[in-house]
């Protein structure tokens, strides 16, 4: 057997050990469908020991009064182990298959957290940020009296600030490139869509600077109230590639 063939066989054996949708760390033992034992390990912080048993319980008892609990704690175990995609799958299944579960609210919040924890800094793609924001807002709207609403609102503000920063970086980049129409477009969007953001002061300063370079006087308050017209103004393509090379500005204060 050649050296490369041996390496390939070893890699395939590792994948087989990991199992479908699992991780290498989980493969050290078979699970037993014992909810109480799994919950005991979870409460002790032994998440890797709890995962196989919660999985076994869900697989063997897909419709009991404790299945939604098992899914929730299995998702929490994956979350603690930073296996965000696996965690999301458990919370999503709980929301989909157990619509009357008392854990619906918490599962929705944890699903939002999974997106949040996978999101990226402002110069990069914001798909996960936007998805997390949608789910946090859904949580606040559906469960306004929930004990964790304050936590969700804090994350909503933080993620809105990040999306505002994304627009600020785009506006700043286009100003640097002397593409003032494009710069104005992103800065005006920031003022209109995120008027409560910590980046408003910086966007206002840049917008005035760009307007001065174009020989105009801008009414900043009007820009906050009126959305920028997109027809014919939105720059073609996205500045994401260039933004990756731009150092994120320090937050004010």
Percent in helix: 55-70%
What fold name goes in the CATH topology slot of the domain at 23-101?
Answer: Serine Threonine Protein Phosphatase 5, Tetratricopeptide repeat
Low-confidence regions: 5-22, 246-253
Task: Look at the structure and name the CATH superfamily of the domain at 23-101.
Answer: Tetratricopeptide repeat domain
Q: How many β strands by DSSP? A: 0
CATH top level assignment of the domain at 23-101: Mainly Alpha
Give the second-level CATH assignment, the architecture of the domain at 23-101: Alpha Horseshoe
Task: Output mean pLDDT.
Answer: 85
What is the ordering of alpha helices and beta strands?
Answer: HHHHHHHHHHHH
Give the assembly state of these chains.
single chain
Which structural class should the secondary elements be placed in? mainly alpha
Largest sheet: none
**Count, helices:** 12
Global shape: elongated
Distance between the termini: 64 Å
Proportion in β-strands? under 5%
- Radius of gyration, rounded? 24 Å
Question: Would you give an account of this structure?
Answer:
The protein is mainly α and 253 residues long. The protein has a domain of 79 residues: Alpha Horseshoe (Serine Threonine Protein Phosphatase 5, Tetratricopeptide repeat), CATH 1.25.40. 64% of the residues lie in helices and 0% in strands. It contains twelve helices and no strands. The longest helix is centred in the middle third of the chain and has 28 residues. The N and C termini lie far apart (64 Å). 35% of the residues are buried. The C terminus is likely disordered.
